[in-house]
Design brief:
With 387 residues, the chain is mostly helical. The chain is globular. A hairpin with a 4-residue loop joins strand 1 and strand 2. It has a two-stranded antiparallel sheet. The longest helix is centred in the C-terminal third of the chain and has 38 residues.
């Protein structure tokens, strides 16, 4: 029993259990919404949402193909979630991840098509573009005390229309207002594949982006938890005045933090668009949602880089699962509703932890009282025998 209590008092275990509880409640509430819309097909619909590619026969190629598709779309979401959690661990809220993501996408596509650059140069340029946009928010925060949320939101729109103008030149197909396929214009800019096309049902977009994203997540985890550099960044976020008193360069650390966050978001965009799985639409009039979805993945993953991998895949999994329901009766946005509920419930993680710790403390208190009562009874019995 002692080891069980110690197990449940572990912070990591409590975070995991809280996230699982959020997912269960979110799915149940999503099912209730489906029941309200149409009770007859509600169970089948929620099953399709949760199963996604498992709805296809196991012996066919489509299950592995759509699994690979889910993984590929998870990569940019994971990178944006890493961008969010990296800055959040340092006490900053990088809501400008969407702008940094779009900057990385724009420069990667332009370099690939207009400049005919190889894929590794495009990746580096995307990282640099995201880092520069992040550094602007960081500099405004450090030297002008401008809240990073305000500057991030403003930069999101500035970058959106700047990228649209950059890509609406001779690298855009006029009938569809989409950029040309990178594969047709510059095959050298395509990310190398892993050679697993036969294994994943002929899906050609399964590239080195997948292992790169996983390695970056591991690197972020190590930097934040195992290095002096990560400690200084977190110390600055917790109390920049105390960090300054200890000799840390708090202004530099703020800029560096948002610079790294922007680089992660920009890298995520390049890892996605350089697979040529999707083209940029230059007539887009709304900010790309990937950065905002990264907030959801970061918090569902308990602000842990390894947890972000699982959370990003889960969110993308149910997002694609929403496309398998009967769209003549239900909206595919039911998966977004479930995700929203889950993320809303993640705000109560601390409350869940408090409840768990309260129950454990009460259990330990009752056990202590029983032991004291047993000891007192034993002492009374010994005293009676002596008399």
């Amino acid at each position: 029993m002692k080891y069980v209590r110690a197990f449940f008092k572990n912070n990591g275990v409590q975070s995991l259990l809280s996230s699982i509880l959020c997912v269960i409640i979110g799915v149940l509430l999503g099912y209730v919404a489906l029941l309200i819309i149409n009770a007859e097909g509600a169970w089948e619909a929620i099953t399709h949402v949760m199963m996604n590619f498992f709805t296809w026969p196991e012996d066919g190629p489509f299950r592995l193909r759509y699994f690979a598709q889910t993984v590929v779309y998870t990569v940019p979401l994971l990178m944006c979630s890493l961008s969010i959690l990296f800055s959040y661990k340092v006490g900053l809220f990088n809501i400008g991840a969407s702008g940094q993501y779009m900057a990385g996408a724009g420069i990667a596509i332009y370099a690939a098509i207009a400049w005919q650059m190889p894929w590794y140069v495009c990746l580096l340029l995307a990282v640099a573009a995201g880092a520069v946009i992040g550094a602007i928010s960081g500099a405004l925060k450090a030297y002008c005390n401008v809240n990073e949320v305000i500057s991030g939101i403003m930069l999101n729109w500035i970058i959106l229309y700047s990228v649209n103008m950059l890509l609406s030149s001779d690298i855009t197909k006029s009938p569809t207002a989409e950029t040309y396929h990178i594969l047709h214009k510059n095959p050298d800019a395509m990310l190398p594949t892993l050679g697993l096309e036969e294994l994943v049902g002929g899906y050609q977009y399964f590239t080195i982006a997948v292992p790169i994203a996983i390695l970056v997540a591991i690197a972020v985890s190590i930097i934040l938890s195992k290095t002096k550099f990560g400690y200084e960044l977190k110390a600055t976020g917790n109390n920049k005045n105390a960090a300054k008193y200890c000799g840390m360069r708090e202004k530099r650390n703020i800029i560096v933090t948002l610079c790294i966050s922007g680089a992660l978001a920009g890298l995520g965009a390049a890892l996605f668009y350089l697979t040529d799985i999707k083209q940029w639409e230059v007539n887009a009039s709304s900010v790309n949602a990937m950065g905002f979805n990264g907030i959801a993945a970061a918090f569902l993953g308990c602000l842990d880089p390894i947890g972000a991998i699982i959370a990003s895949f889960f969110i993308q999994h149910i997002t694609f699962g929403g496309g398998y329901i009967d769209l003549s009766v239900y909206s595919s946005q039911i998966s977004s509703l479930i995700s929203s509920i889950i993320i809303y419930l993640c705000g109560f993680v601390l409350f869940f932890k408090y409840c768990v710790n309260h129950l454990i403390d009460r259990s330990e208190e009752r056990k202590k009282k029983r032991e004291e009562a047993a000891l007192a009874a034993e002492e009374n019995e010994v005293g009676g025998d002596v008399k």
